[in-house]
Amino acid sequence: MSTLNQEETLYREKLWLETPLVRSIHISSLLQCNVYLKLDTLQPAQSFKYRGISHFAQHAKRTHGPDVHLIIASGGNAGLAAACAANVLKLRCTVYLPHGVNQSTIDFLRKEGAEVIIEGNYYLQALQGARKAVEAEPNNAVMVPAYDDPVVWEGHASMVHEIKRQLPEGTKPDAIFCSVGGGGLAGGIMDGCKAVGWDDVPLVTVETHGSNCFYQSLSLNDGPFVGSVASRTVPEGTRPEHCSEHNVTVAHLATLKSKATSLGASSPSAAVVRKALDRKGGVRSVCIPDEMAMQAVLNFAEDHKTLVELACSATIAPAYKPSLFTKLVPESRSNKLATVVLVVCGGFKISLDDLEEYRRIVAADIAAGGDWEVAYNGETLTTAKAE
Amino acid sequence: MLTSQQNRLYPDNLWVETPLIRSPHLSSHLQAEVYLKLETLQPTQSFKYRGITHYAQHALRTYGPDVHLVIASSGNAGIAAASAAKILKLRCTVFLPHGVSQPTIDYMRREGAEIVVEGNYYLQARKAAQKAIDADPKAVMVPGYDDPLLWEGHASLVHEVKQQLPAGTKPDAIFCSFGGGGLAGGIIVGCKAVGWDDVPLVTVETHGSNCFYQSLSLNDGPFVGDVASRPTPEGTTAEYNREHGVTVAHLAALTSKATSLGASSPSAAVVKMALEREGDIRSVCITDEMAMQAALNFAEDHKMLVELACSTTIAPTYKRDVFSKLVQMTGKVPTVVLVLCGGFKVSLNDMEDWRRAVAADIATGGDWGVAYNGETFTAPKLQ
Asked: Is the Cβ of B22 closer than 8 Å to some Cβ of chain A?
């Protein structure tokens, strides 16, 4: 089946939008190659999550009928995606949130008709509340998964089909960049690449040092990291766990310290880690400091007049550092024809106040001197703080 | 998918089909279906890219590859022209007055344009551009807003909107900003082409840059009362344009911070089209502060930074009292389309300035004055 037919069949009744793939004049000029932005900020619910989660919701409606009750535990964007999808599909939706989620997110959830239950101080407690609710309605309630589900990845994968059609005819990216929280987006991108004949396209995954469960998981396996597993130390607070189903070792992080809270997963999907280790194009796993992501938020706002969360700007941050970028994508060195796609995953949890705060933090960090440390497949690189 | 009409009109268009997204925030706020046409996503980040690339391609076809595109612009038109020229491999010179921000100049340079900074005001840069045209037989002036080719290019956005709305939906109103009238001209032309000549057009300006509102006031048309009863503001001269049979206002000074609107007089042809079309023209003027507040709200809701000239379009939808005067709210749920014209000339510093300006203005108490087709009413400052 041609990929076009495949796309049509899988996504015939899709609710998400085909988002623009925009060539960034600013970033392309900086890096002297072709840098494209996949603007999933423009999805309903304002993040890529709408793809996989609306796909899951449609699947749930087909399987369980129109009375199905969608339940989700979320700190924000996944809940919004579920609420928006449920609103369109006329399904009941309940979102369990921990305390501390900001009012504008709660208002948005309610605007979309979701019931909002605020429970517990941490995500895990909200998740427990959601699980209890699902158990209490065994015939009707379905838990909407945040990132670890093939139906969700299938929805996210649609973005790769679009990118292939949207790039100039016959262009294959030299790299695709995306953020990794629990791995839902990366899983979808990898599945999508496989479907369109791009299994060999390098995938650069970006996390922050303080929320890097995927990087740490890769470190626990034979794979793209330098040296042997035995030679790599397991950080304090990390517990390795072997998953026999997917035959990978996965890291469980005791705490998450990053301000990029939308990345916040204490462990990644084991299946997605497996995909990353198996694929032809490999994975280039990067971790950056929060401050570098903050600087990218500010730059991107000035260049593209778009506000993105830290979890999203993490993807863009390496592109604002030319010498770091050429280490991650050596294919782009002195190659004006190189093509790179940055998946701008979006997210609603960003405000002008946040940007003011980031400006202050970045300025203070630059004043402190020194460079930013970047981890890349087991090695450490440095990048200059100042522009 | 292009209609055959679009294919005929726009065979090699350089602009992109931009998204039309439904705003859950504004729709919920107004209990209406509010759609945003995101011209912010054109390659040069404003709608100008449509008409100006269309004009540039026409210039190339007419004069050949040695044609030299010249434009006087302090911003978005200049960026669009530079970018069009780069793609079409044409020479381009942009004449700017002093004071244009470095990021804008850098952007034009990155697109390969030659930059000449001359004069303190737009008109002086315009004079310098004209001198360059007179001296160079290959040079052609790229118009800012007053040209049928521009309108034809801009009109493409209406064709897209028609296809993008849910099947068979006709907007109850289209909202747009009005500077010199290029965008409005394009929307009027586009509406006519797709059978929407009867769709009401709400044009929004700021009090300190309202040459269109003032021009409408000088003619028999949608304004209440008769021309004679409407006073001409101090600093405005009325000029009768014989070619189009309309009177046009010339403003001595523009006092608005929405500088991308800044035209001292509108296109007479567009004024004429506005008066002649079947659908209403609903001409609105708002305060700068109301536009600033809308820009701040829009940034929080939609995570996009827009210039004041663009948030001017959005501002009426953040005030239910204003919106309900402009669009009928009884009966069926109305569908409105806001054309977000975009613009590169907005920064995070601007947002900070506007936050302070709005807070200070709210602290002085009172309401914001809104003008609408010759009448005035107020909008509450607080949300």
From this structure: yes
Q: How many CA atoms lie within 13 A of B16 on its CB side?
A: 19
Cβ contacts of B21 on chain A, cutoff 8 Å: 17, 42, 44
Q: Which of B86, B304, B348, B358 to mutate to test the interface with A (most CBs of A within 10 A)?
A: B348
Per DSSP, the three-state class of B166 is coil
Contact A20 B18 (CB under 8 A): yes
Q: Check: CB of residue B121 under 8 Å from CB of residue B97.
A: yes
Residue A375 and residue A287 in contact, taking contact as beta carbons nearer than 8 Å: yes
Distances (CA, A) of A305 to A239, B27, B44: 41, 23, 12
Judged by CB atoms closer than 8 Å, whether chains meet at B110 and A20 is answered as no
> A7-35 as b/e, with b when 16 or more CB fall inside 10 Å?
beeebeebbbbebbbbebbbbbebbebbb
Burial of A169 (0-12, 13-18, 19+ CB in 10 A): exposed
Copy the structure tokens of residue B82: 């530079």
Name the pLDDT band for B67 (thresholds 50, 70, 90). Answer: very high
Residues of A at the B interface (Cβ-Cβ below 8 Å)? 17, 19-20, 22-23, 25-26, 29, 39, 41-42, 44, 46, 84, 104, 108, 111-112, 298, 301-302, 304-308, 346, 348, 350-352, 355-356, 359
Contact B41 A306 (CB under 8 A): no
Phi-psi region of A76 (alpha: psi -120 to 50; beta: other; left: phi over 0): left
The DSSP string of A145-161 is: PSS--HHHHHHHHHHHH
Do A307 and B41 count as a contact with CB atoms less than 8 A apart?
no
Mean pLDDT of chain A: 96
In chain A, residues with a C-beta closer than 8 Å to the C-beta of B45 are 304-305
Write down the pLDDT at residue A1: 58
ipTM score here?
0.95
d(CA A86, CA A67): 11
CB contact under 8 A, A84 and B24: yes
- How far, in Å, CA of B344 to CA of B346, rounded? 6
Q: Do B305 and A305 touch (CB under 8 A)?
A: yes
Per-residue pLDDT tens digits for B31-48: 999 999 999 999 999 999
Asked whether the beta carbons of residue B305 and residue A307 sit closer than 8 angstroms, the reply is yes
CA B19 – CA B11 distance, rounded (Å) = 20
Is a pLDDT exceeding 70 seen at residue B1?
Answer: no
What are the tens digits of pLDDT across the range B206-256?
Answer: 999 999 999 999 999 999 999 999 989 999 999 999 999 999 999 999 999
Q: How far is B195 from chain A (nearest CA, A)?
A: 27
Q: Where are the alpha helices (DSSP H) in A112-144?
A: 123-136
Angle made by CA atoms B79, B80, B83, in degrees to the nearest 5: 85
pLDDT in tens, A134-193: 999 999 999 999 899 999 999 999 999 999 999 999 999 999 999 999 999 999 999 999
Residue B191 confidence (pLDDT): 98
Residue B209's DSSP bridge partners are: B206
Tell which residue, B163, B223, B182, B200, has the closest CA to residue B80: B182
